[in-house]
Fold this protein.
Amino acid sequence: MARDAQQTTWTDADPRAFVAAVARPARQRDAETLLALMERATGQPARMFGASIVGFGEYRYAYASGRTGHAAAAGFSPRAAASVVYLSDGVDAHADALARLGPHTTGVGCLYLKDLAQVDLDVLEEIVAASYAALTAGTYGLRAREGGEPSPR
C-alpha cells in the first residue's frame, strides 16, 4: 500500500451488532451510551469506520505536507482498558470542558474513559459536538497534535 493511501475507511458492518458483541459488560453499556450520545451530538447515524471504530459523519483533511483524506468526524471504540473517544481536533481544544468532565485520561487526539457512569455526560456531549463542528466547518488543516484554530479551506 502506498505511504499516503487511506488505510482505514467506512465499512458496511453494522455498528449496533459491533456494540452488541463487545465482551465486557461495562464496555458494552458505555458503548450503547456513546452510540446515543454521539448521534445526538452530531445529528449523524452511526457507521463503522474500519473494524473497531464507530464513526459519525465525515470530515476532510488537507495537511501542509500535501496529504489529504477523510475520517470519521466523531467516533469511539470500546477497547479493553477504556472506551476511547476520538477528538481529531486535539484534546487541547477542549481543555476547559475536560476540566469539568470527571475521571479521564487523554492522548493527543484521544479521550480515554474507564466508566461513563463517573463522568458528566452533558459535558461529554458538549465536547463531542464542539469537536464535530470544528472538524466539519470546512477542510480541516491541522493534525490533532498541532492544536490551535484551523482555517477552513
